[in-house]
Amino acid sequence: DLALLKVESKMKFTPVTWGKSETVRLGESVLAIGNPFGLGGTVTTGIISAQHRHLSNFGGIPGSSFVDFLQTDAAINKGNSGGPLFNLKGEVIGINTAIYSRQGTNVGIAFSIPSDLAVGIIDQLKKYGKTQRGWLGVQIKEVDEDVAKALGLKNRSGAVVVNAVPGGPAAQAGILAGDVIVRFDGKAVPNDKRLPQIVAGTEVGKSVDVVLVRKGQEMTLKVKLGELEKAADAKPDEKAPGTPPAPGTPVLGMKLSELTPEMRQRFNIQGGEGVVVTEVDGKSQANEKGVKAGDVIVEMDLTKVIKPAEVGDLLKKAEQGRKTSVLLLVQRGEDRRFVALRIGG
After folding, report:
1. Domain 134-233: which CATH number of 1.10.10.10, 3.40.50.280, 3.30.70.660, 2.30.42.10
2. What does pTM read for this prediction?
């Protein structure tokens, strides 16, 4: 919905003024102007219903995961998209872009691209002719209750790193799987949904401070950001693993095996190291957490494993330390995620 147009005319135009979307308050009155159903110049009114609304690939809109939308109940329909959202000072604080409706008409739930983000994108279009989003090069997940307990965290804020892309900005800076990012470039990271938005809105090539927690200790690393668009173009295709079971060593409801050439072929595992899951007990907690045959356990409690016996040894160590759960770093294809399993659960 964002494009930069050059208008050549002898007429004199009065440009609108950008406002600061970050200073908008819930309940603040707003005006929306657009062209609903071809009725040009239509003005509707409402309030700001919510801020920092995360919509992952909402309605198939490319890049919506990187936008921190404003939500409004101002009447917005088809044709309003691209129109301005004004505060009562006459400043543009958003650009109307989507509605939530099963019928395709207004139900009081609409979303606008915040002005603070739009201004940066327009500057990029003017300078480069395209958008350039910052890229950190990590795969992250939510810090849920199980992960927080397994990592010994005091709260659930931040985003836990499950994989740092080899050769990417994060990997080059020394960020590791299991690190919990709590601040990025001076901005707090409340959850895993907010981090991609903050990173995407940061200038490509900028060196930023990343504050993270590693094994209970807070530390700061300097990272030089890459460009998301270039990284996306270079991403290889993901291949799905197979699922045939095989005998192995039973641990936590899973049968495990070394990642031999035969196992790689059987489960179509292309690379990496770890211990392969050959079978999962249908009544186990591992099965409830979505672990499947063909998954590869890369780490257990932030320690790399390549043999089933090492998994067993780490489990015994956790039991001796009176831990209530262990944390597995599990890889499936190119996707990695943390899985916390209760000991004896």
Report:
1. 2.30.42.10
2. 0.66
